[in-house]
Design goal:
heterodimer; A: alpha/beta; TIM Barrel; seven-stranded parallel sheet; two-stranded antiparallel sheet; 45% helix; B: alpha/beta; Rossmann fold; 2 domains; five-stranded parallel sheet; 55% helix
């Protein structure tokens, strides 16, 4: 745990290290982060440590911030990140959400519209109420904490295709991409505008980085043509409208069919699934920092030693930021998260 | 009057070429000519769906294309099915499919269902966000050969194991094959929880279940 809050000892603060790694300007060692949002970092143990539990921590700013801080303090990931799910935006647009319980994250149970044609029935997100306001309040609390801790704050946004495929049925949306592109684009425009507004408020509240995760707008599902026309286009529209030091994009699934499209993403950091081979994808990510990609099932179930070895393997293949490849299971032992962070701590780039 | 072969090719092409609005019309024409419904399904619509699956395997088609192909297939099926002779041959094998509790992402599950249906399985679709208990009850009630479990979220994968443990507890684990799939799921995970198989995509899922049924 020697790395914890080490700015006082003349080494990089966690925030400085994230910035340098994201901009590839040289770091003493790679940071070990987990953004939050779809990339879940919360575990049962961190809830018990903080006394802040799901589902309350999804709606209560103090519990949300408390949970984020507790994990970092315990030698967990070197960032704060909120919210802890992908339902905040959809709920604010009118979706019904089951808030889950202490072990299951919230999920949407009913979409507000049946298809992109019903766009006018969708509510614009009210950022001054409900869970969007709770997320913003939590970020403000984390900003205060940051004054002494130097820990970077990552705000999370649901990817535009994933959000559109949540407020309406994903199958309907995919058919509309092909059969009625104008209708699909009007929905995507609306979704992007709302994400931009939410992202801007997250930044104003104190987010140092914004992470957009696309579990549904993937190469596997869409193929190269629609990945370019919808995922890349609308992720970029959101990213371009946000002024924030670090922009992270995570795309799920096998990316082989869309390697060529990835260069067009306007992010500093690109994160991907563990089935993607780091050495294979790196040439397609020139100019971007590579984040990842330790298998989350392994982190959740294997011994701490084994997790350390997997982390070293990812580092040796050249990740600039060490991170889980997806959201962590809630049952993940804290010791395994600590082992991941410790592996990043053992890297000596000779620049310290 | 059109030849049967011509109409069968047209049915297949409707599915393959995503002409979902034309499929019903051609199926009606096929029936009006007095050709057998069963053959229209197996040698027409299903052929087209299998060709679409080949394009998917070659990465020329992706999920939007497969969904529209399947719309064409179902539009044709709606017309042909009422003309099938009653109680034809042996009973089809049943597959109970669903997205496990905690998750509502069902695109993958729907594609697997479509491909298994085209392959001749009778599908019992429990939908999404399905509690473990419902899978087990449905397996008992139907005597299904296969239980197919899907999830996109790593946080809900635990429910797959729970279902298998419940089948154990009910003493019916050896009566039903359990297959798992979804983005965070892997062969390793499938083995660890004691599932009978994992497949990476819908086409592989059909091969996997065919294999398990032969064994």
């Amino acid at each position: 745990m020697e790395e914890k809050n080490s700015c006082a000892q003349g080494r990089s603060s966690q925030k400085e290290r994230l910035y340098s790694a994201a901009h590839r300007t040289g770091t003493d060692r790679p940071p070990c982060i987990c953004p939050g949002g779809m990339m879940n970092m919360i575990s049962k143990e961190s809830m018990e440590l903080s006394g802040c539990f799901w589902p309350e921590a999804h709606s209560d700013p103090e519990k949300m911030a408390g949970l984020a801080v507790a994990l970092n303090r315990a030698g967990g990931f070197e960032n704060y990140g909120v919210p802890f799910c992908m339902t905040v935006e959809a709920e604010a647009m009118g979706a019904q959400v089951n808030m889950g319980n202490s072990l299951a994250e919230p999920h949407v149970t009913e979409s507000p519209i049946r298809g992109p044609g019903e766009l006018e029935k969708l509510k614009p997100m009210d950022l001054s109420a409900g869970r969007p306001a709770a997320v913003l309040a939590a970020i403000r609390l984390l900003k205060k904490e940051q004054e002494s801790s130097g820990v970077p704050i990552i705000g999370n946004l649901c990817g535009p295709v994933s959000l559109a495929g949540t407020v309406t049925d994903m199958g309907v949306l995919l058919r509309t991409f092909r059969k009625e592109p104008e209708k699909a684009e009007r929905l995507m425009d609306f979704v992007a505008e709302n994400l931009i507004a939410f992202g801007r408020e997250q930044i104003r509240a104190g987010a140092d980085a914004v992470c957009i995760s696309e579990p549904s707008g993937t190469g596997e599902i869409l193929g190269p043509r629609f990945f370019e026309a919808y995922s890349v286009k609308y992720v970029n529209r959101v990213l371009d409208a946000l002024e924030v030091p670090v922009k992270i994009v995570h795309i799920c699934g096998d990316l082989r069919s869309v390697y060529r499209q990835l260069a067009g993403l306007h992010c500093h950091v690109f994160s991907f699934d563990s089935i993607v081979n780091i050495s294979e994808i790196k040439p397609f990510l020139e100019g971007k920092a590579v984040m990842g990609n330790v298998n989350t099932h392994a982190i959740g179930t294997m011994s701490a030693d084994k997790v350390g070895t997997l982390a070293e393997n990812a580092l040796s293949k050249g990740v600039d930021l060490l991170a889980p490849a997806c959201g962590l299971p809630v049952s993940t032992p804290l010791a395994n998260i600590q082992a991941l962070v410790a592996a990043a701590g053992r890297v000596d780039s000779g620049q310290a | 009057m059109k030849e049967k072969e011509t109409l069968l090719t047209q049915l297949a092409d409707c599915v393959l070429n995503m002409e979902d609005e034309e499929a019903a019309g051609i199926a009606e024409e096929y029936i009006e000519e007095g050709y057998p419904a069963q053959e229209g399904i197996l040698s027409g619509l299903v052929v087209g769906m299998n060709q679409a699956a080949e394009l998917y395997e070659r990465e020329e088609y992706f999920i939007p294309e497969l969904l529209i192909c399947s719309d064409a297939m179902y539009n044709g099926l709606d017309v042909l099915r009422p003309h099938l002779p009653r109680s034809e041959g042996e009973k089809k094998r049943q597959v109970v499919i669903g997205v496990v509790e905690g998750d509502t992402h069902d695109i993958g599950k729907n594609i697997v269902k479509i491909m298994l249906e085209a392959a001749g399985y009778e599908m019992v679709d429990l939908g999404r966000d399905v509690p473990p208990k419902s899978f087990v009850e449905k397996a008992k009630e139907t005597g299904a050969s296969v239980l197919a479990l899907s999830t996109l979220m790593s946080t809900t994968m635990g429910n797959m194991e729970k279902i298998i443990r419940m089948l154990d507890a009910e003493g019916i684990r050896d009566q039903v094959k359990v297959v798992v799939g979804g983005a965070p799921v892997s062969q390793l995970f499938a083995e660890k929880i004691g599932a009978d198989g994992y497949s990476e995509n819908a086409v592989e899922a059909v091969k996997l279940i065919d294999r398990l049924m032969e064994a």
